[in-house]
Amino acid sequence: MTLGSDVSRLTTTAASAAAKGLSIVVPLYNEAAGLALLHERLIGLARTLKARYGLACEVVYVDDGSADNTLVIARTLAADALDVQVVSLSRNFGKEAALMAGLDHARLGAILFMDGDGQHPPDMVEKLVSHWVDDGYDVVYTAKAHRDNESFLRRQAVHGFYALINWGARQKIPEDAGDFRLLSPRAAAALRQLPERNRFFKGLSNWIGFRQIRVDYEPAPRAHGVTTFSPGRLIGLSIEGLTSFSVAPLRFASLLGVLLALTAFIFGLTILWEVWTTGKQVPGYPSLMIGLMTIGGVQLIMIGIVGEYIGKILSELKARPIYFVAEHSEKRADGETTAS
Ligand code: UDP
Ligand code: MG
């Protein structure tokens, strides 16, 4: 038995892997308004890819428990030039779970993750595919070219998040990288093999290694509706990403503990020194309170951090499925239809 995993047999050359095709995974949460248009654009894209690379395409729409009629519309979409799968989850499980469901259902070799709100321009896909087929890259990820339209505070928060998650990491997650990315068959296979339940795709698809390349792009404005990621949810997601991906916060906690203990020790020595040399009583109340509150506060924060990790361990241990599929239908471009 080996403890590693050999995914190399999945692709010898990028060109031969391309013969199998590309599965486009699109998570959908209340995207009814723009779905038909997106599908039109994907059909156009599939035609181009077929003509230029001989690449077969399918799209896997994952309805993540939408409250509007996203699912109804998704079911009506035509398998024109590309196969269409519609996977409907039993409730809203969140984007990462929806991506996982798409990854599990994708049948063709390579995977492209793309948002369903039009922010990830289909026009760019050709370029991503070219990096894979022509240049042999395994992970083609996109990153926001700039964040000029975001607030200063948000940019600093993002910066801090990546500084922390990458602290001491061997494989750094590139800042600004998004979920819009293409994975070669072997990279997709590697990603499928990761057993954890708490998933942070950006981090994982970077962690697996292989040949990676960055492509800058300008995200389009949302075609309709508003983002589902409020600042509160983003903070939650950051904690999720951090604790499921890195032990940096724990290391930070230990380091801070050592630092505080050291400060206290030195402080104690200076007090002793003062008493010995001057003989005066040290007036203590304010400094005592400050010390007490600092230590108390820091301890609570650290217990919280440790608690986050224990929570992670609990949810990994329960080993619940990441999602439930309530319905799955499939239309082939050659006319066959199945539903379950
Ligand atoms: N999404 C999802 N489940 C959720 C929230 C979002 O599948 O619980 C999908 C959503 O339909 C979209 C993508 O994830 O296709 C990105 O969502 P959104 O545009 O709200 O995020 P942002 O672009 O602001 O990061
Ligand atoms: Mg969006």
List the helices and strands and how they pair.
Elements: H1 14-18, E1 22-28, H2 32-53, E2 57-63, H3 70-76, E3 83-89, H4 95-105, E4 110-113, H5 125-133, E5 139-144, H6 152-165, E6 177-183, H7 185-193, H8 201-207, E7 212-217, H9 231-245, H10 248-278, H11 285-318, E8 325-331, E9 337-339
Parallel strand pairs: 1-2, 1-4, 2-3, 5-7
Antiparallel strand pairs: 3-8, 4-6, 5-6, 8-9
Helix pairs in contact: 2-3, 2-5, 10-11
Bound molecules: uridine-5'-diphosphate and magnesium ion (MG).
GO cellular component, one term: plasma membrane
Domain Glycosyltransferase 2-like: 23-183
Subcellular location: Cell membrane
CATH superfamily of the largest domain: Spore Coat Polysaccharide Biosynthesis Protein SpsA, Chain A
Overall, the morphology is elongated
What kind of sheet is the major sheet? Answer: 9 strands, mixed
Largest beta sheet: strand ordering? 7-5-6-4-1-2-3-8-9
Strand content: 15-25%
Small-molecule binders here are: uridine-5'-diphosphate, magnesium ion
Count of spatially separate domains: 2
Rg computed from alpha carbons, rounded to a whole number of angstroms: 25 Å
Kindly name the structural category.
Answer: alpha/beta
Please give the CATH class of the largest domain. Answer: Alpha Beta
Domain Glycosyltransferase 2-like: 23-183
GO molecular function: glycosyltransferase activity
Pfam families: Glycos_transf_2
GO cellular component, one term: plasma membrane
